[in-house]
Predict the 3D structure of the following.
Amino acid sequence: MHLSIAIPEAQVVEAPALLRIVRMAPACDVEADEQGASYVALFDDFPKSVEIVARLIEEAWDLRDVRITLDSRPVASRINFYAALRCYHESLSAPDAAAYCLQQAAKVGTDGGCSDRSCLSHCRFICSRCVGLSRDRGAPPVSIQLLELARRAEVDWCPNLRIAKVDA
């Protein structure tokens, strides 16, 4: 999976620590467009570089015009992406990543008053949203709706994401 983070050159020049992190990426480049030059950190092995990506986003948190692109798709919500990134990073230290995700989703489901039906996603970022899924005739399959929820939650990239195949 390919991830790129582009930061306007003028903002990087003002932050030497940020430039050091950009250079820690597996590859980096300077690109120019009509808005000007940007330093671009490139991660062809994402999410294997989760720690560097998290540090880069943290260091650039207050900067404007930071562009994150995941497999040619712009990340619409940096905060949602970062929250999912941190969750995935935390799952890496758990003895069982699937159990970790299930536990996190259960917390959200319990707090949100989720019904007793079996969870369709086992992801805390989708859990609270799945109550709005349409099971009406003519609606897209539930698995397609869940994938769309995952994309909007900026978690569709997560290797831990499991979505149940439900046709009802």
